[in-house]
């Protein structure tokens, strides 16, 4: 029996050793100068030809352009092992997204039509993104965009320097990681940094797990999203630390009519996505769901997360024909601030909006969204902004605490609503007096055990505690709040065109007659 066990163990060790492909053996040089694209790809191809195994990136800095992972490949970065993006755009492959767009350069890892792919280890993948920006120049907001704001030409201006950016992009590689039409994808433990564009994009994938990664992009870099999930199903993100200039986590669905030359894929919704135990930071949204060119998104569950230093906390944006439904957000701490520069958002801990962004489509709906056990501290309040053609339905807030604080940027940024991505210049970024919680064009709204505190706010544009307009079916129980201390004529609860009200407290309530 002892002899048989020894033979079996020796056989397993032999198989494990034979399944490893060290990139050094394929000519890679980790001197931080040599371009190793062909060597790394050769190791991957050899691994694939042998029906899979582990490609090893040992200690050293290995410069690469675009490489492609394939079936049954595990890319493992040892401690001290670094894959760094080349600063030469010619080292990245050309990609034509579809007939509507000009050619672009692919990023570092472009993987499509693959199964059982893993990236892991204690090493690092560095996009070298700072090379592709003017780090001493800020991207400006044009006067056409800002002309309906409270500040007009002075909107988000800084007296000197670049403020909060975003810095000006140069020609650059696109998504640093792409997994397109892949199954059973795992990314875990590695450190990822300095993406020049979206960092990690999963498109048309099934069964994805991202766990334990640290993803730190330049917070001043525009379009440097953390993780984008598009038309994917069965995705889990957990135990991650994501710091991104643009949105930290994005969930969307491709447009129904999106086409890629040579591909005949059925574009499908995104769904069955779980995000838990993550620390998120973004100069845009910590979590963004939905936007333009949108297929449906459903069954999204986010829990046990911290969102800090972000322009928005959680953003749900409907702009197209797809619907966004069945979403829960539980046990989340959110801290939001105003920023200078051309970032979208105005410090809302929670932003939900449904406005038209495309012509000639039947606008979808946002429905069945639950927020529970939320602690939010921000320089603006909660915004729920439906429209007559897309009324937000079945929305609940339970055990939500909101504290609104004054911002040092109120003079250049405060007192506005930002709905960019919608149609019509006057309807997307404009001045408005702001309550602590604003809900308009909604149906079936439940507010229970919600507290609203004003932290010595002095801004004159802050008004009521809770304000509703065109809401049908509003249930309020145990709402603790007050109007802004800077506004003596505001109300705790101000209801306009609201029907079906059920409340346990009429003190401080003003209800205008429904038209």
Polypeptide structure, described:
There is one protein chain. The chain has 515 residues and is mainly β. It is 7% helix and 46% strand. It is built from 4 helices and 39 strands. The strands form 4 sheets. It has a 33-stranded parallel beta sheet that branches. Strand 7 and strand 8 form a beta hairpin. The model is unreliable at 1-18 and 256-265 (pLDDT under 50).
Write the layout of secondary structure elements.
Blueprint lengths: L1 H17 L1 E3 L8 E5 L1 H13 L3 E5 L2 E5 L8 E5 L3 E5 L8 E2 L8 E2 L3 E4 L2 E7 L2 E3 L6 E6 L4 H4 L20 E3 L7 E4 L2 E6 L2 E3 L6 E4 L2 E6 L2 E3 L10 E4 L2 E6 L2 E4 L4 E4 L17 E7 L2 E4 L2 E5 L7 E14 L1 E7 L5 E13 L13 E5 L11 E13 L3 E4 L6 E14 L4 H4 L2 E3 L10 E3 L5 E19 L10 E15 L12 E11 L5 E3 L4
Parallel strand pairs: 1-3, 2-4, 3-5, 4-6, 5-10, 6-11, 9-14, 10-15, 11-16, 14-17, 15-18, 16-19, 17-20, 18-21, 19-22, 20-23, 21-24, 22-25, 23-26, 24-27, 25-27, 26-28, 27-29, 28-30, 29-31, 30-32, 31-33, 32-36, 33-36, 36-37, 37-38, 38-39
Antiparallel strand pairs: 7-8, 12-13, 34-35
Mean pLDDT: 92
> What is the β-strand count?
39
The residue fraction in helices comes out at under 10%
Radius of gyration over C-alpha positions, nearest whole angstrom: 25 Å
Report the total helices: 4
**Percent in strands:** over 45%
What is the subunit arrangement here? single chain
User: What is the straight-line distance between the termini?
Assistant: 88 Å
Unreliable stretches: 1-18, 256-265
Overall form: elongated
Largest sheet: 33 strands, parallel
Helix-and-strand structural type: mainly beta
